[in-house]
Amino acid sequence: MLSKKIGIDLGTTRVVVYVKGEGVVVNEPALLATDEKGSRILAVGAAASELLGRGTRARAVHLARDGDGLDYGVAGTMLHHLIGRVCGRQRIFRPDVMLSIPAQVTGAERRAVLEATMQAGAKTAYLIEKPLAAAIGANIPVSSVRAVVVCNLGAASSDAAVIAMGDVVSMERVGPGGTALDQMILSAVAERQGVRIAPSEAEDLKVRLATATLPAADGPGVTIAVRAGHPSTVTISAAEVSSAIAPALDEIASGLARLIDQVTPEQRSQIAAFGVVLTGGGAQLRGVSGFLSGRLGLPVKIARDPQACIAVGTGMALENLQVIRRGQHYMT
Questions:
Q1: Are residue 278 and residue 150 in the same domain, yes or no?
Q2: Does one domain contain both 214 and 108?
Q3: CATH code of the domain covering residue 87
Q4: Domain assignment of residue 92, given as a range
């Protein structure tokens, strides 16, 4: 078969594209750079981030709409670029494309993203809910498992779902995402050290120092240059960073416990056996599986390559379309 099969995870901060037989081929910022009037696209993804970082007059356009959800007009432009990059501009065989969507999107939004995908050059467009895609990408046998919890620790939010026999039976936003954790670190540094750091520096501190369990106060630290104010450098410890994000982790643990309390006793016993599977970039936080396992009293596992799980599962779902067709969320 000459048509490519493409799975796309349009996230609020990153876009990940999986192609059958090739693996993940795109993992870039969910970002466009336009001219000052917003009338001409100058760059997309990593190229847009690089262009904007050079201090040009280009305008940044994000996929996120008011920090929550996607702007489907911008998504259409991004899809056109992504499909063109993967398949080539002068393509004879149009691809089959599956996109992941949040479970809460409306029927009108589903129609809008399907139409945008077709206009971007797809032969057939399908939609799959993100929790189900994450489970498939994590190699969970979704069609036969009687109950499992999948928790995606994403950038915009942390969302968890109970999946049973191929269906999402319940879903809940259980806490903030990685972007909120960065803001918590930024605020804590401003309060305790009296200096302002950039959001990118807060994210770097999270990656380098943060743990889900509080380290000793005299543990490792990082010295960073401060662009404004005095002193010109400041040392920030792992304990400061981990303490700053602790309330968010408590909220995620409580949200997961609340979700599990809503299921039937039979499903709860199945969850106790299978456990909770973590996906998303936040699953890479040191100690997070042990922390949540201790709070929930359940086994908690991290999926292999958690950040790519949704895109990979979206692509894999093209090989098993029964669930998607049953929901009528597709267009040819």
A1: yes
A2: no
A3: 3.30.420.40
A4: 5-133+310-331
pLDDT tens digits, residue range 286-329? Answer: 999 999 999 999 999 999 999 999 999 998 988 777 655 554 45
Same domain, 227 and 259: no
List the end-to-end C-alpha distance of the chain, in Å, as a whole number.
Answer: 17
**Listed residue (198, 184, 188, 197) closest to 250, CA to CA:** 184
For residue 274, give the amino acid letter: F
DSSP alpha helix (H) spans, the chain: 46-53, 72-87, 107-119, 130-137, 178-193, 199-209, 238-261, 265-274, 288-296, 309-317, 322-327
Q: Which amino acid is at 177?
A: G
Burial 177-202 (b: 16+ CB within 10 A, else e): bbbbbbbbbbebbeeebebebeeebb
Half-sphere exposure of 199 (CA within 13 A, CB side): 6
Of 192, 221, 190, 210, the closest CA to residue 285 belongs to 210
Other beta carbons within 10 Å of 268: 15
Nearest 5 degrees, angle CA 308-CA 312-CA 317?
150
Q: What is the pLDDT of residues 23-78, one digit of tens each?
A: 999 998 888 898 888 778 888 888 888 888 887 788 888 887 655 567 777 888 88
Task: Read off the tokens for 161.
Answer: 């779902």
Work out how many domains the chain is built from and give that number.
Answer: 3
Q: What share of the chain is helix, strand, coil (3-state, %, to 5)?
A: 40, 25, 30
**Is residue 216 located within the same domain as residue 145?**
no
The CATH number that applies at residue 215 is: 3.90.640.10
Whole-model pTM: value is 0.86
Say if CB 168 and CB 135 are below 8 A apart. no
If 0-12 CB within 10 Å is exposed, 13-18 middle and 19+ buried, where does residue 69 land?
A: middle
